């Protein structure tokens, strides 16, 4: 592998800590040559090994002033200069004090009508749906928090410990393709390929999901259930559709609001009514009307949003 590719991979590693990171350009670079991903992954593995030996490395170093803000720009300079030892030493100096609280590295948001792809150092890719947010919680990129909808494509790696926090659920993944929809007091997880585990203070026993299964938890609806879902319908929003099979109306309304760009509430009397069908997203403006028509409901304007209610008799 050429030094040029290693240098480029190191620069992309360092650039991910910047708010100005060009994720589209990074994705194009990864896909341009198989050697690019191999180089990037090799640096990520080195990073993980150094982090695992952090305490031992720090113990061997003389006391050094702590930087005002932990940075990872060591990669481009130290790797290009010539080796894993230099990289390990530089990283150890840059690490925060052992008692320090880890900082949030990055937060990614999408507006109405926007999607965004985020690539992690370990090769995982996350696609955020419109009006969604994801935060990387630690410098190892091993813990993420999601609000809204996201699709995960996580390559299998033995020993991986990727944790996603979403709507009160904790998702543990080793390598799979799955979708997460997280609201204020609810969360849904659906697996398209592979397997994962879900835990929560509200769940007595860890739940394992495999391809073709989903899990729904909602405080307001008093629901906690596992069900079946066709893998091809997982994260159907990526194809411009919202596909449901017996989903509570309150959760469907939450999804619709994300694409319509306005609040969509539901009369408590019908919040748990089930909906099955396919909604075409389009520009989002027709979703509320379509849903109301299919379920024979009234969509009543309320403030800056809409409230779905039982149809009034003529």
Structure notes:
The protein is of the alpha+beta class and 314 residues long. Helices cover 28% and strands 34% of the residues. It has eight helices and 16 strands. It has helices at 3-15, 23-32, 34-52, 54-60, 74-81, 84-94, 249-260, 287-294; strands at residues 106-109, 116-119, 125-128, 133-136, 143-154, 162-166, 169-182, 186-199, 207-210, 213-218, 223-228, 241-248, 264-266, 274-280, 297-302, 305-310. Strands 1, 2, 3, 4, 5, 6, 7, 8, 9, 10 and 11 form an eleven-stranded mixed β-sheet that branches. It has a three-stranded mixed β-sheet with strand order 13-16-15. A two-stranded antiparallel sheet has the order 12-14. Helix 3 packs across helix 6, helix 4 (54-60) crosses helix 6 and helix 5 runs antiparallel to helix 6. The longest helix has 19 residues, at 34-52. The chain starts with a helix and ends with a strand. Residues 64-103 have low confidence and may be disordered.
Q: What is the makeup of the main sheet?
A: 11 strands, mixed
Q: Which shape, going by the Cα principal axes? A: globular
Low-confidence stretches: 64-103
| Residue share in helix | 25-40%
Rg calc: 22 Å
Which sequence of SSEs, written as H and E, runs from N to C?
HHHHHHEEEEEEEEEEEEHEEHEE
Estimated share of beta-strand residues: 25-35%
How many beta-strand runs?
16
